[in-house]
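Comment thread on ticket #2218

A.B. wrote:
> Attaching the input chain for the structure job we discussed in standup.
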Amino acid sequence: MARRAFFRFFHFSFIKFNPDPVVVRRCYLDEGTLWEGSGSFDFDTANYTGVSVLLEGGLSNGHVSILRTNDPAVTTGTIHLSVYSLNVDLSTLSINQTSLSGVYHHTLVTPGKFYWGQCLVARWTIVLPYAWDNATKFVASVGNSAIEVAQVVEDLEFDSAELQTTNSGVDIGGLSAGAITIQSTNGAIRGRVSPGKNLVVSTSNAGIELESLRGGTEWIVVHTTNGHIVGTYVAVEGVALATTNAPIEARAEAGVLDLAATNAHILGEYHADMVASLWTSNAPVEAEVEAGDITIKTSNARIAGRFLAKRRIDISTSNAPIDITEGNGEEVLLRTSNARIAGEFVVGKRFDAQTSNDPIDVRVGLKEEAQAPEVKATTSYGRTQVILSDTFSGRFDVSTTYGRATVQNCANSAEDCDQTDIVFEKNARTSKSGTKGSEGQGLVFLRSRSGDARLFFD
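C.D. wrote:
> Ran it. Output below, let me know if you need it in another format.
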């Protein structure tokens, strides 16, 4: 429920383009006749607090370059626009220039559709001033057009910046704004961004590769389908990364982390002050995660890595192993089926591992403050072996149906260690129960069916 609410909080809408043109041939930039309405359009930063470059209608192909002058004396911005037509009625083209709430709006108006033998292509070069102290807004919203932002643009700071296109990629050398929104379809989004408050990125059928490292960023939401997500994402409140049918391989830090994929790998390094959730299906999770609470879920694939939690670790899969190099939390819960569970852990209150048809082989240490730890490991048709810290004090119950039950100090040989603090109430071949120590309230419960059940205090 919390995960769904997190995504609902960031539901957002973008400027809607007219339907994309029906294009039945490849139209190249600068192909055709140059429209006489093409030219350069200046806007003075003394008169405007922002600029919005828009396309109203359709386009066969386009390209937007966003630059910044290197001359500190220049206080105007310039939009260079070249439109080329092939068998398109030029009288249907126009440019609207308006001012709205102090923002200069430059809109290219075109037909909504094109047919066989028709092409309409456009090239924008937007040159921003060297400095713009009162800049509030920057928008480039054009369909079917690749967008490129030069690195020098990063030195300009806007209250908000929006880059929107369709069927094309977005490449960002650098972009700074309080709120940054980037949207495309069928095009990759790459580059470096510096959001002061929020970052929202969306595309489809393509990957997203971004670096967002600015301190103080509050929220980051990144979403695509059928494309990978890679990069670095740092925020104070939350980071949400979601895709389908392609992997997530990132580094992220936030108060809350929510990663969701389907049919694809999740890899990387993740740190959350509160909660980290990694969800996928039919693909493995291999990651290093540190958080207050950690939830890792997949199906039919392996979960492996290093997981350190202040409170709870909850890991589950099916038909695949769980292999943990280091797991540390007050509570550790592990679930799978038809596969092994293995690893090294340190717990304060509870350890619970369950599988079937394969062994459990774990080493469990206890935190110094552990008072009444509960350790459980159950499987069927496989060996259950737990090496538990010899500081444990409390009751144990170890049994198997057809194998051998073992309870002893030292994992190597019973003769190597003193066994006098272990008192058996039941000491049969397949079942052993009793106490270790004299004052503890802990509990160890091991079960197997056809394999051995082994408990070692070491």
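A.B. wrote:
> Thanks. Noting for the ticket: The longest strand covers residues 170-183.
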